[in-house]
Amino acid sequence: SGSSAAAPLPEEDCMKLNPSFLGIALSSLLAIDLWASKRLGVCAGEGSAWGSARPLMKVIEVSGHGIPWLLGTFYGLCQSDSSAAREVLLNLLFALLLDLVLVAVVKGLVKRRRPTHNKMDMFVTISVDKYSFPSGHATRAALVCRFVLHHLVLAVPLRVLVVLWALVVGISRVMLGRHNVTDVLFGLLLGYALYSVVEYCWLSPLSAPALFALW
Prior knowledge:
It is found in: Endoplasmic reticulum membrane; Nucleus inner membrane. Belongs to the PA-phosphatase related phosphoesterase family. The chain crosses the membrane at residues 89-110, 147-172, 184-203. It comes from Centropus unirufus. The protein contains nine helices and no strands. 29% of the residues are buried. The N and C termini lie far apart (87 Å). The chain has helices at residues 11-17, 21-40, 54-63, 66-79, 83-110, 136-151, 156-175, 181-200, 209-213. The protein has one domain (52-213). It is globular.
């Protein structure tokens, strides 16, 4: 009889039985990301494979933290007696603040938890730091790297060191177990792109006279 016919499966069950190619690809990439991140977290704890290198990784971590960069830029801005230097430092401060806001917004939207092997022992954190995507350190490192290379006259060895610093900061986030690989990769790309926004919105005595009047 017609009543004995099997009832159709709910739509969500059909999706589970016949997942899309995109869903399979994303799930596979996520699994690879989590696996690689755990394997590369060699400094995540004292007993990790490279636990002895953890203090060095934490020094690198501090070098990419937002607070030292914000305080150092603000201090330089207050002490500078050159109008050209003040313009560059003011835009660097603007870039750092924009970076903080953008990363906080993306983290709040994505809400990806940090790796399970993460041992968060930074000297200071804020509430949004319980989320992992993207890496704020990586975003900041890429942004500062591009900013410095465009606005400071440096010898080639120093330019290479600046690029290496940005890459090492990103790598240290995975080695310390703070972030997954994709958190860092996206952070580096976001920071690189964010510099273009800063250049487009460049603050100058003509475009923002009120700000320059304060200094």
